[in-house]
From TrEMBL:
UniProt domain Endoribonuclease L-PSP/chorismate mutase-like: residue ranges: 7-146
PANTHER family cross-referenced by the UniProt entry: ENDORIBONUCLEASE L-PSP_CHORISMATE MUTASE-LIKE DOMAIN-CONTAINING PROTEIN, ENDORIBONUCLEASE-RELATED
Protein name: RidA family protein
Organism superkingdom: Bacteria
Length: 156
């Protein structure tokens, strides 16, 4: 039997959440051929922002990484939905964009987004490595500390 994304996440000692309800007029994922575009996810569960505030003020680097990991888990929920839970349909992660709500003077934005990148690598091995951009921003939806989006290659 093929492993599910939910089981792979559980093997990391984590839980796959429900797909968060979009905070705007968009879908959690969209497919174009074999590319799956996962909409940006903030660090939330059940509509509540887990880490509201700025990294470098309210949160330190390690907490920022946890916020990024929470975003990645939300992305995994969308990915699981798109491939009907079948991890064998995931070819690789192509790209990730990460946004960190930062306090002035905080410069470790790429290290924060490693919280999401490291989870993808733990789940998919070398196929989880991706091209990436990490950007510090003044604010994010719901005052979330982190938002992450990604693109995956999938097969039928």
């Amino acid at each position: 039997m093929t492993q599910t994304i939910e089981a792979a996440v559980a093997a990391q000692g984590l839980t796959l959440p429900a797909i968060p309800r979009p905070r705007g007029a968009f879908l959690p994922w969209s497919r174009l051929g074999n590319q799956l575009f996962l909409a940006g996810q903030i660090c939330e569960r059940g509509g509540e922002v887990l880490y509201p505030g700025k990294v470098g003020a309210e949160f330190d680097l390690e907490t920022g990484k946890l916020a990024a990991q929470a975003c990645a888990l939300n992305l995994m929920a969308s990915l699981s939905d798109a491939v009907e839970g079948d991890m064998s349909r995931v070819v690789r992660c192509i790209r990730m964009n990460g946004f960190v709500n930062v306090a002035p003077g905080f410069h470790d934005v790429p290290l924060v987004i490693n919280g999401a990148s490291e989870l993808f690598i733990a789940l998919f091995g070398e196929h989880g490595r991706h091209a990436r951009t990490a950007i510090g921003v003044a604010t994010l939806p719901g005052n979330a500390a982190v938002e992450v989006e990604s693109i995956f290659e999938i097969c039928d």
